[in-house]
Amino acid sequence: MARRAIKAINWNALAERIPETEKASFLAFKSKSDKYLQRMMANPETAPQIDWAYYRKTITIPGLVDKFQKEYEALSIPYPKDKYTAAIDIEQQETDKMIAEFIQQSDDYLVEVNASLSKIKNMIPFAEMTMDDYTEAFPTGFLRTDKDTTWPHTDDTQEIPDEEVPGHKEKSSH
């Protein structure tokens, strides 16, 4: 298998996407990556050729050079198997789906917000509204006249009187 490496990484594009809090980690990773790539590129892609005839003339031990030559030529260092690209591709597809869903949700929300904004822009100004106009515009937000309430006059912000709390008994003071 041939040696493969990514020849060009757009580090500037990556740096633009990294939050300020992660810049130090990003720069450390970039430095390690650059050092690894330098070390890898410093070595030749194929094993160097050896002049076996020279060693046969020089070394007098019979069969030693032939043995080394046979072992050297049989030497095969396997290239590491890629176990991660498929997982990364699947994760990328899932992330793309999540991004598409988020964009759709954001677009739907924008439609709702624009509809609300349009309603507010087309409404009678609050300073010119009567209570009847307000009650018509905001049916759940009008001031209740059947109970005493406190601002902002919504059900979830009102205190429940002690007599309405289940299990509450007033203590008599003697």
TrEMBL record:
Domain of life per record: Eukaryota
SUPFAM superfamilies: ATP synthase D chain-like
Compositionally biased residues, Basic and acidic residues: 145-156, 165-174
Region span, Disordered: 145-174
Main location: mitochondrion
Keywords noted in UniProt: CF(0), Hydrogen ion transport, Ion transport, Membrane, Mitochondrion, Mitochondrion inner membrane, Transport
Subcellular location: Mitochondrion inner membrane
Coiled coil: none
InterPro entries cross-referenced by the UniProt entry: ATP_synth_F0_dsu_mt (IPR008689), ATP_synth_F0_dsu_sf_mt (IPR036228)
Any Pfam family the entry gives: Mt_ATP-synt_D
Similarity comment: Belongs to the ATPase d subunit family.
Function of the molecule: Mitochondrial membrane ATP synthase (F(1)F(0) ATP synthase or Complex V) produces ATP from ADP in the presence of a proton gradient across the membrane which is generated by electron transport complexes of the respiratory chain. F-type ATPases consist of two structural domains, F(1) - containing the extramembraneous catalytic core, and F(0) - containing the membrane proton channel, linked together by a central stalk and a peripheral stalk. During catalysis, ATP synthesis in the catalytic domain of F(1) is coupled via a rotary mechanism of the central stalk subunits to proton translocation.
Protein name: ATP synthase subunit d, mitochondrial
